[in-house]
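in:
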């Protein structure tokens, strides 16, 4: 068991009490603080601007918002944001929770699935080609840079194995 049990308990209780409704969103800007690479990649994607594809009139039309900006009304988050895919971050975004993959998922972090993509990328969306999950994933890649940074960090913090000096002591 982790030493952080005392801190884990309150977040777990809060999450369970709130289980009736979904967790609140903290906003993409909060994620940005700790995931700058993911944020930059997302900003370049059409998901980050999905609401701007709609005219002013359409931006008030729930039928369009349901895919282009599904969390605008309830969570004040425009377009298809981090939390539209990963779940509201209220309980999982504190750092000590994020560092515990199991706990993070227990309190709301979602691993986005193909099914989830297809809830918007369905036959009614104006795509010329049918939705190809694997190809589409490549087009929204915001994790490779994240993983590279983490790998570099792990390497940097690994114990340095200095080769024994060859200049023999006399
Ligand atoms: C206080 C810093 C912090 C904030 C804020 C934060 N994260 Fe994290 N997140 C982390 C850390 C630390 C990890 C663990 C991996 C690592 O060390 O990079 C992580 C891991 C993740 C993972 C991978 C989890 C896994 O186990 O595969 C996802 C997905 C993620 N965060 C999404 C988000 C989203 C979405 C937000 C905003 C709602 C967010 N994070 C906010 C620090 C943070
Ligand atoms: C909440 C609805 C929603 C979900 C969930 C969603 N998308 Fe999207 N996606 C959109 C919308 C809307 C657009 C078009 C944005 C625009 O141009 O206005 C889009 C655009 C895209 C594009 C860009 C297409 C292009 O022409 O460049 C890709 C790629 C994509 N999505 C992949 C995915 C993948 C992969 C998933 C699942 C991991 C996913 N999407 C989940 C709504 C969604
Ligand atoms: C079922 C989900 C869904 C609904 C509902 C929806 N869209 Fe979309 N829309 C998408 C997806 C997904 C894409 C991106 C298709 C692709 O390129 O793969 C898209 C793309 C678009 C684009 C093209 C954007 C670009 O970058 O070229 C426009 C414009 C658009 N939608 C307008 C609308 C309007 C207006 C409404 C409401 C009448 C609406 N959409 C409702 C899912 C939806
Ligand atoms: C359209 C849905 C979608 C959106 C929007 C989205 N993500 Fe993701 N994210 C994914 C998917 C899918 C994966 C897992 C990809 C895989 O494992 O192949 C992922 C993976 C990640 C990871 C995991 C990296 C790792 O080490 O495993 C982090 C961190 C992350 N996303 C953060 C964010 C942040 C921050 C934002 C907003 C700035 C965001 N995501 C927006 C779908 C999304």
């Amino acid at each position: 068991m982790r030493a952080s049990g005392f801190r884990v308990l309150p977040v777990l209780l809060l999450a369970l009490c709130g289980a009736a409704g979904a967790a609140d969103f903290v906003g993409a800007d909060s994620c940005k603080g700790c995931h700058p690479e993911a944020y930059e990649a997302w900003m370049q994607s059409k998901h980050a601007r999905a609401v701007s594809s709609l005219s002013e009139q359409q931006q008030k039309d729930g039928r369009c918002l349901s895919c282009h900006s599904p969390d605008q009304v309830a969570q004040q988050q425009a377009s298809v944001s981090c939390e539209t895919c990963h779940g509201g971050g209220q309980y999982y975004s504190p750092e000590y929770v994020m560092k515990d993959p199991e706990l993070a998922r227990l309190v709301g972090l979602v691993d986005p699935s193909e099914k989830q993509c297809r809830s918007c990328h369905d036959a009614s969306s104006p795509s010329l080609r049918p939705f190809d999950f694997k190809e589409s994933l490549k087009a929204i890649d915001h994790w490779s840079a994240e993983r590279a940074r983490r790998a570099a960090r792990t390497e940097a913090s690994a114990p340095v194995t200095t080769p024994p000096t060859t200049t023999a002591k006399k």
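note: Residues 144-157 form the longest helix (14 residues).
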